[in-house]
Amino acid sequence: MRPALVALLLALPATASPLRQNEATIAGGDVVSDGHGISGMSLWVRRGEPAVGFGLSKAGVRFEHGYVLVLKGDPGRTSPADWGGTAKSDGTTAVYNGHVTIGRRASVDYSVTPTSEALRVNGREYDLAKGRVFLIDLTRDVPTVQQVRAELAAPVNPTTTEQVDTIARDHLRRMKWLPATAAFFR
Question: What confidence tens digit (pLDDT) does each residue in 17-63 have?
Fold first, then answer.
């Protein structure tokens, strides 16, 4: 997987924001079986900004928002973000299990069936009816997770790092102005 990451980063379109040391833009890809599936987590990591990770689900014709993670940790990006995950679908159940480490580790386990979905962040299950955005503070000794209901742009399954860059910046722009998120962004 590491050689693919290097190739993906080297293929970054000129119009996406340029990468500095220890920054990354990764399109998560997807796995679909019989019209049902899930995306791997797309990830956007920049210095001086919270990182953004997001995943989608698909039942039928289009992808829908699964979750959006906004991660605060190692703001100077003094070391590379470690990330990884696997996605699979058997046509009935689609599952993604992954993690991001930016100073400290955040894990995500997301599964969908045609009639249900479940999300765990750092081992705790969340009710997605209460919001699909999760503010994760990895700068604390014990990372915190705050679930937020927020209006998100129409879901797009990114196929390029330029699309991941645009989507991540849009998620951050929308989150920074919500009263429920003000303390997180200070």
Answer: 677 767 788 888 888 888 788 999 999 998 888 999 999 998 777 88
**Tokens 């100073």 sit on residue:** 103
Note the pLDDT tens digit of each residue in 136-179: 999 998 999 999 999 998 899 998 999 999 999 999 999 998 89
Question: How many Cβ atoms are within 10 Å of 157's Cβ, its own excluded?
Answer: 20
Tell me the C-alpha to C-alpha distance, in Å, between residue 186 and each of 61, 110, 142: 39, 29, 19
25 strand-pairing partners: 44
Q: What is the C-alpha to C-alpha distance for residues 58 and 36, in angstroms, rounded to an integer? A: 5
Work out the angle at residue 71's Cα, subtended by the Cα atoms of residues 165 and 160, and round it to the nearest 5 degrees.
20
User: How far is 180 from 45, CA to CA, in rounded Å?
Assistant: 23
**Residue recorded with tokens 């599952």:** 95
Q: Phi, psi at residue 60, to the nearest 5°?
A: 95, -130
What gap in Å lies between CA 130 and CA 151, rounded to an integer?
A: 12
Report the predicted TM-score, pTM, of the whole model to 2 decimal places: 0.86
Q: Which long-range contacts (CB under 8 A, 24 or more apart) does 156-159 make?
A: 156/63, 157/30, 157/39, 157/56, 157/58, 157/63, 158/27, 158/28, 158/42, 159/27
In this prediction, residue 185 carries a pLDDT of: 87
